[in-house]
Amino acid sequence: SVLRFEQNIYQKLKSVVKIENITMNILVQFAWHKLIQIYTSDKQTTVGTTVSGRSIPILDIENSVGLFINTLPLTINWDNQNTIKTQLQQCHKNISELGENSFASLSSIQKEGKRLFHSLVVFENYPSPVEDKEEDSSLKVTFREGFEKLDYPFGIIVDEGGGDVLRFNLN
Q1: Cβ atoms 160, 24 nearer than 8 A
Q2: Contact predicate 96/26, CB 8 Å
Q3: pLDDT of residue 80
Q4: pLDDT value at position 71?
Q5: Whether the Cβ atoms of residue 92 and residue 25 lie closer than 8 Å to each other
Q6: Strands, DSSP E only, in the chain?
Q7: Are 106 and 71 spatial neighbours (Cβ–Cβ below 8 Å)?
Q8: Distance (Å, rounded) from C-alpha 149 to C-alpha 115?
Q9: How many beta carbons lie within 10 A of that of residue 19, not counting itself?
Q10: pTM of the model
């Protein structure tokens, strides 16, 4: 199913992100973790987080073509008296550390093949394909549809490329 934010709500979220000097990804990650924590009363939540892998120390990686993405566990500790602002800053730090360790293999850190998390958050902020009506029809490339398969009981794919979409993908 797809949930679309009204433009005014989306703009309010963008202003919060700007004021707090974080990204929309951090806000979404925090909100999902907090929702899990509220329903489970766990003192620690762990969710799979997709990282770009662009910080892997490969010469000229920024000019490379291909997938370097990886999924790693993002953990938030709730057994503290931190303010929401402090928790958001800690979430930012944790996501940055995941990026620095994006070379790690998820299978190597899972014990006996047991899952470390049961939900996954994928944050996409690249532009969505847009059809050009004035493009030469003999050279026209048409984007039909993308489908992403997740291997987790629950996955959230957040697409900010269109500017106002939050898409929930249930497995």
Answers
A1: yes
A2: no
A3: 92
A4: 86
A5: no
A6: 2-4, 44-51, 70-77, 119-124, 154-159, 165-170
A7: yes
A8: 17
A9: 8
A10: 0.78
